[in-house]
Design a protein that fits this description.
CATH class of the largest domain: Alpha Beta
Strand content: 15-25%
Largest sheet: 7 strands, parallel
Number of strands: 15
CATH architecture of the largest domain: 3-Layer(aba) Sandwich
CATH superfamily of the largest domain: Glycogen Phosphorylase B
Strand order of the largest sheet: 3-2-1-6-7-8-9
Radius of gyration: 22 Å
Length: 403
């Protein structure tokens, strides 16, 4: 069996999902290749060659500019005319697996990359795969994706017809090419099932793979390296961008100031790009963007608690990684979070935006140290459900049913 994975970038969750899955499949004997427009990557990705004509480049630039002017939130089109080709020597695949295509390529470009006779799957990582163009609203604040995506709340009323045309374009692509939907969480299973694009399908459920770095038996902490007070309680938060409103970190510290006296012996360890506004009375230490998984594992292991105040996640990978090193978590119960949170964390699931419940929960966990055995129980749950061997077998079994 030969599998091609196609993704826009390796930097986001969808790209990492694809990269780890491709590597794990190779590990169990399934020949798997990952292609991206970013160029060859030492971790195992191959470069797609851009062959977009000049006229199409002009159209894409113009159309993107128009969409930016008429939309009040991120909106991307499936009518873009980007064209790519596989590198020379690429053989014929049995499976083509699509991941993370938002804002990159349109219907015409994808069809150029499909191969006659190869089954096609798409792992749905975001609302864009199911909507008439929006990225975050579908299933979160808007349910128009379940019907025809008319009267889009983020588009100027004069161009509202675009969303229904976008949705029909995606429906047609899925039906003509018999695209099988795959979800990364139970939440996404439910959204796919309700969507007009995949109506009537029973999507597969394949969770992301956790990196081996988070499952290592011996993991260092960073107390000395980061010059942390050994008597302080450490609470970790983070995302790719700490200023992203959807990740909720700025609002978390704004709300936390009301509990500053309770956190007098606490250090908030924050990772991610950007700067956090000063929060009076709180001890905050920022370490910047963390891309090395071994370092991130040590960072999470250093913490007594990991907190996610995110407003929306289709899965919640960092929550899973924290549990992988044995660290308990507290988070808002939103989107696909429950697929990433184990049975030991039930008391850490907080109703969305219930800050009055979140901070007492955090303080309770910090003030009542748990039994050491719970760390290993937490790690065992992650290992048994999300390790590469487990997920690769599930994905390979799904492929086998399609060919």
């Amino acid at each position: 069996m030969v599998v091609y994975h196609i993704t826009k970038t390796l930097k986001g969750g969808a790209g990492q999902y694809a990269l780890r899955l491709s590597s794990a499949l190779n590990g169990i004997g399934v020949r798997s290749y990952l292609f991206t427009p970013e160029g060859n990557n030492p971790d195992g990705a191959f470069s797609l060659k851009r062959v977009t004509p000049f006229s199409s480049k002009v159209f894409n630039k113009f159309y993107r500019a128009v969409l930016n002017r008429v939309s009040s939130a991120p909106f991307h089109s499936f009518f873009l005319r980007e064209l790519y080709a596989y590198p020379e020597g690429a053989g014929a695949p049995d499976i083509i697996h699509l991941h993370g295509l938002t804002g990159w390529i349109g219907c015409r470009g994808l069809e150029r990359l499909l191969v006659e006779g190869a089954a096609c799957l798409q792992t749905t990582h975001s609302a864009w795969d199911l909507s008439g163009g929006c990225i975050v609203n579908a299933g979160y604040t808007c349910n128009a994706f379940t019907d025809s995506c008319q009267k889009c709340p983020i588009l100027d009323s004069r161009v509202n017809f675009l969303t229904s045309k976008e949705l029909v374009r995606k429906q047609d692509f899925v039906r003509r090419h018999k695209v099988q939907a795959v979800a990364n969480s139970q939440y996404m299973v439910d959204l796919i099932t309700k969507s007009a694009i995949y109506r009537g399908q029973h999507p597969g459920l394949i969770h992301p793979i956790i990196d081996d770095a988070f499952l290592e038996e011996e993991q260092e902490t960073l107390h000395g390296q980061l010059d942390l007070d050994p008597d302080a309680r450490i609470v970790c938060l983070g995302s790719r961008s700490v200023t992203d409103e959807f990740k909720g970190i700025p609002e978390f510290f704004k709300q936390a100031q009301a509990y500053a006296s309770d956190f007098s012996k606490t250090i908030f360890l924050v990772f991610g790009e950007g700067n956090i506004p000063a929060a009076e009375g709180l001890g905050i230490k920022c370490v910047g963007l963390v891309q090395d998984k071994t370092y991130l594992a040590s960072l999470l292991r250093t913490a007594d608690l990991y907190v996610s105040p995110s407003q929306f996640e289709t899965f919640g990978m960092t929550l899973l990684e924290a549990q992988g090193v044995g660290t308990p978590v507290v988070c808002f119960d939103t989107g696909g979070i429950r697929s990433a949170v184990g049975p030991l964390e039930d008391d850490g699931l907080i109703k969305l935006n219930d800050w009055k419940a979140m901070f007492p929960t955090i303080l309770k966990k910090l003030n009542e140290p748990e039994e050491p055995s719970r760390k290993e129980m937490r790690r065992s749950w992650v290992r048994e459900k999300f390790s590469k061997a487990v997920i690769a077998k599930k994905q390979a079994d799904l492929y086998s049913k399609l060919i």
